[in-house]
Input
Amino acid sequence: MPAPSPTMRTLDEIISFQGRTRPDEIAAIAIGHPELTFRDIAERSSEFTAALRSHGVGPTDRVALLLPMGRDAGIAITLTMAAAAAAPLDPAAPPSVLAAIGERLRPCLAIVPPGQESLAAPLGCPVVALQPGLRLARGAAVPPVGMPGPDDVGTITATSGSTGLPRFVPRHHAQYFDVQPLVARHHALHPGARLLSATQPHHILGAAAFVKAVAAGACTVFAGSTAPAEVVAAIRHGRPTMGSIAPSRWEALLAAAADGPPVPRFERLISTAAPFPSDSARAVSALFGAPLHRDYGLTEALCLAFAGPDDEEHGVPRYRPMVPGSVSIAGPGGERLPPGEEGEIVARGPNVFHGYIGGDGSEFFPGGWFRTGDLGVMADDGSFIITGRLKHLINRGGEKISPAAIEQALLSHPEIIGAAVLPVAHPTLGEDLEGVVVVRPGATIPPRVIRRWLLDRIPASHVPRAFSFRDSLPLTTAGKVDRSALVAELTVRSTR
Output
């Protein structure tokens, strides 16, 4: 079967192409739903576009989607993107947050589940329900004409892990499809492959999953929620060959898959760039029968770099830019730093966004280099390691300490499966370090043993002054450690 031509740079073109060239191949699988072919998706896309146009939605207008995780949300985002700018939002967001988002995004329509039209009331726009079969009721507006072009916005997603009102990231069609062949090759996506979609749809990984699979002519296996048991059930039902989720989500699948029949073997496992205990990573790879690869990307710069199973040094992944020359290391003023010097990771290129909605441009250094907020060190060959996050630096008596290397050293201990290093107030130093640790069930590690372990691996000034133990670490909906929640707990404890 032919692949989409490189000149196809919009989702509408690609959906039409797949519907013509592989009409009977399966495009979507989910428990409790009939399988859908690429012909079905192409037909639904034409109907969806006509319905949106009947509500007055033009190719550059914004459509909010407040839908629960699952097949219908993933496909509805893609069908909306083919016709307009799709803005998936968290349906659990408080009304006050949705009202503020409505002021910022000004959507012209909101799509919600049947009978939940009041959910979108704070957005201040007309509302239509997504009916069974992925269909929308028709409106009475004079239909606008035209379809989105390569430089028009396809999706608008919120940055994850933000406090207060998140910043919104527009991604143009060209930013998806100009690098699609590179992404498909790294992710082992091709006709006949099956992608596991197991992330909330208002996060970029969830919003882009079906888009990415359709562009590659691959099938998508949708999980109904992020609950480990449901994800494992989806894996057994749909037999995906590739999955890309956060390390904490992969780890959670280990216990969920212990009961019941064996899980199918994958062709490629992708983990995001968060720390991953080595023992757990090996266990995940063994369970699903495939090597584990790492992706480094952000909502603003999707699929920016990757690390293969052998691209590690002492358990630290070494990343290679997806597009050569698209990643560099910068000093505080934006100056490029030579190999071996730590600085901020910056990026520019075809898969990097053009700026936040309503932003002032401060997210870029001169020359169009996006400031990722991550710290790293580059090697002579253009590969790099991630050494921390700027906003997580802890100022201990004037020394700026990154928690990332400390957490990596903690996770290298065979009995530690979770770790976070956080700032705590200190009367003379200003800030000091405390380690929050999760050990394997049944294990006990005295703090003195942890200190001794760390002293063999990191500077003495970087060893936390105290350790606390938890059964698990709180996570954001994106699967990242919720540092804000942990800091709040430590603050409350210190004031008692």
